[in-house]
Amino acid sequence: MDRETDPVELGVQLLARLEDPELPLSAVIDRIETVTTHPETTRAILEEAEKRGHIARDGETVTTAGGRFLSFDSEVVARDGDFECRRCGAGLSTGYFMRLEAGEHGPFGSSCIRKVTGRE
């Protein structure tokens, strides 16, 4: 994520692309934490995603709107280099980056990219 990317917008766009129809709030927070660990920003992401109709919250359950899923063919880019996974912190020689309108988000390892997008 570059310095100019708005973390709230990036987080909202990430939640708008979730493939799971329903998730525990903790799993949604796990995904948001790849963007920010700041509690106020996390709350702003959840509120904005709900306001835009991307998610609905009912207690500890989040239902997704089931919009446009992330295409691994055109919206996930793999790059070789020396990276650290934004989700788990593991060292990577290949990083996977999501291309969202708000900016690029990553790097992630091969299993974390699937977890963040809801493919695993």
Sheet with the most strands, sense and barrel status: 3 strands, antiparallel
Q: What is the β-strand count?
A: 6
Assembly annotation = single chain
Outline, from the CA principal axes?
A: globular
**Share of β-strand residues:** 25-35%
Q: How many DSSP helices? A: 4
CATH fold descriptor of the largest domain: Arc Repressor Mutant, subunit A
Sketch the topology as an H/E string, one letter per element.
HEHHEEEEEH
List the strand order in the largest sheet: 1-3-2
Describe this structure in words.
This protein is 32% helix and 30% strand. Strands 1-3-2 form a three-stranded antiparallel β-sheet. The two termini are 23 Å apart. The relative contact order is 0.20.
Which labels suit this protein?
4 helices, globular, alpha+beta, 120 residues, 3-stranded antiparallel β-sheet, Arc Repressor Mutant, subunit A, single chain, 30% strand, 2 domains, 6 strands
